[in-house]
């Protein structure tokens, strides 16, 4: 088959993107690929500029930089497009309804005039023939009016249905924009939003809030040994295992790559540590098998850092502390949970840095 020039160019960009991704040592995930593809196709000038700048600094992108570029320049594109379409659909529906209402108003006026002239005719006419003619006219007009009303009703119910659908689509888009497509749990955007919500809830209710930062152990080796597709399956399995072991109010998200975060509202660090250990053992006892050959690929373990929120501290510090705990878990052997309570000095530092009182969220 002869290929069109467009297809050739697209293939060229795809190849450039893939080669460069591998050269830069980045996983060939769809998101990373989209970033590099957009870069070579120059379809998104802002992304191109931002990426050129990063490349001029380090010669290549880090995983985080690539994720950032995706989130900033590509992640929302689909959402924006859907929002624009939804807006247009709503506007078109409103225009339709207004037109129908206008037409109905004109017909109502006409109907009023007919009735008016009919009553005039009744007072003046005397012959039976004239009365019959006048009544026939009114009956015809009434029929037209009834049909017009029925049309209006149908149109309005179609519009209601259309608007309900549009609203449903918008809800779906919103949900998708906060969902990690691979694992189905919330994404980083979802987490950032939920984190702020959970913090204000904890502050308002003077309730404890604990954060678990979870990272799969030696996942790179797993990918290198069995390939990315099996790696992806493992990521799904990990997410599913975490979700199955959590309670309804707990919040889980994929923080990035092979890292997950869990917010445990109304949970002290001691209890959170127990939850984390349950998650860890529940995963460690699962044997990973190749789907087709049933070959056993061994077990997957996770390391977890846990920390409790201290009222009035900034969310970044809270997350960073969980990350430090996770780092310690990695440094001291992996497949373990490290709970990092605040030291009295840290509490003092938080108080000094942020003089506002708990409950003040201004
Ligand atoms: P550690 O125990 O220190 O965490 O080692 P690690 O190998 O898990 O950590 P490292 O940060 O070196 O590697 C993380 C790996 O996670 C690298 C990358 O290939 C893999 N990864 C990240 N995102 C995805 C993904 O979406 N799919 C797959 N299959 N792998 C991913
Ligand atoms: Mg990691
Ligand atoms: Mg890891």
Question: Layout of SSEs?
Answer:
Layout lengths: L4 H19 L6 H12 L3 H14 L4 H12 L2 H48 L3 H50 L10 H17 L4 E8 L2 H8 L1 H17 L6 E6 L2 E7 L3 H16 L2 E3 L6 E4 L2 E7 L6 H17 L5 E3 L4 H10 L9
Parallel strand pairs: 6-7
Antiparallel strand pairs: 1-3, 1-6, 2-3, 4-5
Helix pairs in contact: 1-2, 2-3, 2-4, 3-4, 5-6, 8-9
The site of one magnesium ion has 4 residues, from loops.
Care to describe what's here?
There is one protein chain. This protein is α+β, with helices and mostly antiparallel strands. The protein folds into three domains: 2-74, no CATH class; 79-177; 188-361, Reverse transcriptase/Diguanylate cyclase domain (Alpha-Beta Plaits, 2-Layer Sandwich). Helix content is 66%, strand content 10%. It has twelve helices and seven strands. The protein has helices at residues 5-23, 30-41, 45-58, 63-74, 77-124, 128-177, 188-204, 219-226, 228-244, 269-284, 315-331, 344-353; strands at residues 209-216, 251-256, 259-265, 287-289, 296-299, 302-308, 337-339. It has a five-stranded mixed sheet, with helices on both faces. A hairpin with a 2-residue loop joins strand 2 (251-256) and strand 3. Helix 3 (45-58) packs antiparallel against helix 4 (63-74), helix 5 (77-124) packs antiparallel against helix 6 (128-177) and helix 8 crosses helix 9 (228-244). The N and C termini lie far apart (64 Å). The model is unreliable at 355-362 (pLDDT under 50). Bound molecules: 3'-deoxy-guanosine-5'-triphosphate and magnesium ion (MG) (2 copies).
């Amino acid at each position: 088959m002869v290929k069109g020039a467009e297809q050739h160019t697209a293939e060229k960009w795809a190849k450039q993107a893939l080669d460069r991704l591998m050269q830069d040592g980045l996983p060939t995930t769809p998101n990373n690929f989209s970033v590099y593809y957009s870069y070579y196709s120059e379809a998104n000038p802002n992304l191109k500029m931002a990426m050129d700048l990063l490349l001029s600094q380090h010669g290549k992108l880090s995983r985080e930089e690539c994720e950032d570029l995706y989130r900033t320049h590509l992640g929302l594109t689909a959402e924006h497009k859907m929002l624009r379409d939804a807006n247009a659909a709503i506007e078109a529906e409103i225009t339709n309804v207004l037109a129908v209402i206008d037409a109905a108003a004109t017909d109502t006026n006409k109907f009023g005039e007919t009735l008016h002239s009919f009553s005039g005719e009744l007072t003046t006419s005397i012959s039976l023939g004239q009365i019959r003619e006048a009544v026939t006219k009114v009956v015809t007009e009434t029929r037209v009016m009834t049909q017009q009303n029925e049309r209006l009703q149908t149109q309005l119910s179609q519009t209601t249905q259309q608007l309900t659908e549009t609203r449903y689509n918008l809800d779906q888009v919103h949900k998708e924009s906060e969902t990690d497509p691979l694992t189905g749990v919330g994404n980083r955007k979802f987490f950032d939003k939920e984190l702020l919500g959970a913090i204000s809830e904890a502050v308002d209710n003077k309730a404890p809030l604990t954060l678990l930062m979870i990272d799969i152990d030696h996942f790179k080796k797993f990918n290198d040994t069995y390939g990315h597709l099996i790696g992806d399956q493992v990521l799904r399995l990990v997410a599913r295992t975490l979700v199955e072991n959590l309670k309804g109010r707990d919040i889980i998200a994929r923080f990035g790559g092979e890292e997950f975060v869990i917010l445990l509202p109304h949970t002290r660090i001691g209890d959170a540590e127990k939850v984390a250990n349950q998650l860890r053992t529940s995963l460690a006892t699962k044997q990973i098998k190749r789907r087709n050959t049933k070959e056993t690929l061994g077990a997957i373990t996770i390391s977890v850092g846990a920390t409790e929120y201290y009222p009035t501290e900034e969310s970044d510090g809270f997350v960073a502390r969980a990350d430090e705990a996770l780092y310690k878990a990695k440094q001291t052997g992996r497949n373990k949970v490290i709970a990092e309570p605040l030291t009295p000095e840290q509490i003092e530092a938080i108080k000094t840095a942020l003089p506002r009182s708990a409950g003040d969220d201004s």
